[in-house]
């Protein structure tokens, strides 16, 4: 077999790179180990988790509607139906769509496990065990990442990673989540809404990692009421699997004195790159001690005809970072002088409330000594937020005090993940704060809170009373 461009891995980075290279006239082969395209994102990541979060939201809203005088009765969940809905509604439609798009573009899709033999050839091991050699001109490594395994966790079916948790095989009465990062908070939201008692243990003194504390606070406050408990600044040191449950020993600030019993554990303490899987070193590609492949701004590795994109090249491990990297790699291979140089990459926790941030954070500004001015608009003054029955949201924008240019933003509340995109555009376009403040936003919408945060910095806010500086 021979091809011009081989793409290894069909996640959001890989399929984007393959499709873009084909659109630019290249003969492309896309290799994927699993029978469906789409990688972690479509099969066991972004999309199924968001479908479950949508179901969780309906459960919570049905319960909370009683405050409006609407009693719907206690929602019941049929796990089998829910699983089928997630698979039919999202996974099957999207992964099937990708196969159709690959066919239309004449991308050759090969199911098998790829390993480099050299910088010009790789070996594909098919599911039946047979092998085939593929010669290529250029290669794009898009092999993604997998969950980190804590070494002291025993092998026990009651201990899940994110893939296991998404399957919702059953609803444990007591669920321990190790890691209060994005997966922990999203999957905790799902299991809590469906009826499990959720405990989160987190090493740091904050949920969602390094996000500004004022942005994490509204989510933390709501989840403190819903979850059984949080143990911050605490870690797990031992898990004993017994017949009647998993007995967990903790250490740290909020550690209980003796082991605590749980029915199931979800371990989500970060992800590790899949570079070893592909034997990149046989092609002469440098892989660092953590397994990441270093690339330049054109996604090129130290080997001129080999590129890498997505989770395998480093943080942030996000689909919307993998996708543009995939485009750049394909375009560079096709001869275009393009570079991956975003000014900001948004982060979103699709929890309830959603937490989103992009560009400079206050934590980062303080750590690096960057001067900034901020405008924080509380959603208690947003008519639309109150009409949704919620008031805990916040929209915060940071600007450069000398130029008034937008540097970053954080938003907490319903649809924060959609709202943050406006600030991303403002940062990329070099907008100053007046550009946002003077842009007419539709009323009544949550998007107005972005303009209102801008008006605070601009000194023109009328929806709040701000004492004169
Ligand atoms: P992946 O999607 O990891 O795909 C890599 C593919 O390569 C896999 O299909 C794998 O089978 C294949 N592969 C690996 N080695 C080989 C080999 N040797 N031969 C052949 N094939 C191989 N990101 C977001 O932006 N938003 C979200 O809401 C979000 N939610 C998430 C929820 C969960 C539960 C998880 C786990 C992740 C989530 N992510 C989210 C992260 C996102 O899924 C990843 O950043 C993204 O999938 C990375 O894309 P990728 O193309 O680098 O690789
Ligand atoms: P994460 O890095 O977001 O969070 C892991 C958390 O575990 C951290 O807060 C860390 O301090 C904590 N931790 C580490 N070791 C621990 C220990 N021994 N005991 C207790 N806590 C410990 O990683 P997570 O949640 O596994 O997600 C992996 C990646 O997947 C994310 O970084 C993100 O890139 C991606 N993702 C993105 C989503 C989104 O964009 N909405 C959703 C889900 C995943």
Key attributes of the depicted protein:
FAD/NAD(P)-binding domain; 469 residues; 3 domains; binds flavin-adenine dinucleotide; Enolase-like, domain 1; alpha/beta; binds 1,4-dihydronicotinamide adenine dinucleotide; globular; 7-stranded mixed β-sheet
Write the layout of secondary structure elements.
Layout: E1 2-8, H1 12-23, E2 28-32, H2 39-44, H3 46-64, H4 79-104, E3 108-111, E4 113-116, E5 121-125, E6 131-141, E7 145-147, E8 159-160, H5 162-166, E9 174-178, H6 182-194, E10 197-201, H7 213-226, E11 229-231, E12 234-242, E13 245-252, E14 260-262, E15 264-267, E16 271-273, E17 306-308, H8 319-333, E18 347-349, E19 354-359, H9 362-368, E20 373-378, H10 383-387, E21 394-399, E22 406-413, H11 416-428, H12 433-437, H13 448-458
Parallel strand pairs: 1-2, 1-6, 2-3, 6-17, 8-15, 9-10, 9-15, 10-11
Antiparallel strand pairs: 4-5, 5-6, 7-16, 12-13, 13-14, 18-19, 19-22, 20-21, 21-22
Bound molecules: flavin-adenine dinucleotide and 1,4-dihydronicotinamide adenine dinucleotide (NAI).
The site of 1,4-dihydronicotinamide adenine dinucleotide has 26 residues, from helix 6, strand 12 and strand 18.
